[in-house]
Amino acid sequence: MHSQFIEAITWPFKRRSSTIVLFYSTLLVGAFIGTRYMNVPSIGATRLIRKALPGSKNVPTKNLLKRIGVHLQCDKQGNSTTQTCPNHYPTKLNPIKKTARKCPDYFKWIHDDLGPWKAKGITREMVESAKRLAFFRIVVVDGKLYWEKYRDAYQTRDVFTIWGILQLLRLYPGKLPDLDLMFEAGDIAVVYKSNYTGHEWNAPPLFHYCKDDHTLDIPFPDWSFWGWPEINIKGWEELKKDLEEGNKRIPWMERLPFAFWKGNAFMGDRIKLIECNSTDQWNAHIATQDWEEESKKGFKSSNLVDQCVHRYKIYIEGIAWSVSEKYILACDSMSLLVTPRWYEFFTRSLIPMKHFWPINPDPNKLCKSIKFAVSWGNNHKQKAQKIAKAGSKFIQEQLMMDNVYDYMFHLLNEYSKLLKYKPSLDLGANETCSEKMACFEEALQKQFRVDSMVKGPSEKDPCILQPPQEPQVIKAFLDKQDNVRRRVDGWVMKGSSGRDL
After folding, report:
1. Which stretches does DSSP call E strand in 191-238?
2. What is the mean pLDDT of residues 46-59?
3. If I label 128, which of 56, 78, 434, 477 is the partner at 20 to 30 A Cα–Cα?
């Protein structure tokens, strides 16, 4: 590991004599070890390197930060309550690369989700009216994050969500404006349109993980992007790499020729899926998952990478949306999406019969719809594999963590423009930072957070957010999706071969 570190950091000086390189490499390793094991701030190591290396003033600090990383600075004698937030981290983003990259298509829904408040803005009273529904409140002032907890979230949803926003602040220091927002961390969206018909602008703005056509909650990336330690699921950046490698184990044509689903079947609409558990009758294998038993066995049979061995994988909602959707779509299998009621921030730009095969959620048609999809795929292997690859490519390329952070940035930035007051600190809010949330956690919790930690400021600005689309354009897009679903339903009911695809 040390040899790799020396190789990465000494590359600008390789043309110097080997003696000089050896001397300064030793100095650099000492700085690294101090950072890694003695809690010496690595930004301090950067200053040391720049001072020591001949001509290093011409080497951009950004390059050095990228190679060294800005690590956690944990108090040696501290604990979770006395740990302080260090002040060595950069407070301003100085990108060395200018970007002309447009944001992915699903970013367009930011404008739609914030639409109810665009005309009249958001007052402090409106934000505070959401307190009765929220799990916690987040205030960002001068680049520092403060939060106040109102009630317990399930497992560690709340702290990993806050951890994600802290990483956004590390990625784009000084870029995010002051904020004041309420967050709901349950399953089901709670701000119903019907309660504000005709005056949606007065609804409480509430961030959440999902919404549907009947609610006004503001979708935000869920906690699992930074890890779900309770069920041993890595943060998305690491897991996505594993899934990409796992997809290479078995070529699509050699995979098991039926549909697969595994999870907690005894929640929401999933109970009806159990009736489809027959590879002979319905071309489907439905496996129930007891997470309590699985945890006792060390999660040996729940590795997501090991489940990418089927040509077809089923996604079905539980109580509301499920974080499993991205894992299923990333598997290089043709995803059979039981038409969802709920959607998260990226799923509204998924196109049926391009990225996935739509499955009718009607309990009387569900099994038949799954059977037809598998039969069609096995009779049209190249077309089915094309859909599988398109869905997986969407997740692998459009849902990179860079894009997740950029989505968070633009959503929060656009939201801040609507605030009609200057956010300020409340007495109940406490400052937090990466150190306070990771230094003294138990081993697995700490590992998941450190693995998902942003190591240094970005080298470039966020992607460019496109302007809002006209309502008729969005309507045409959604109507086209509905038409495709109805056409597929027609094939299933008639027993058609689906040749008109």
Report:
1. 207-208, 218-219
2. 35
3. 434
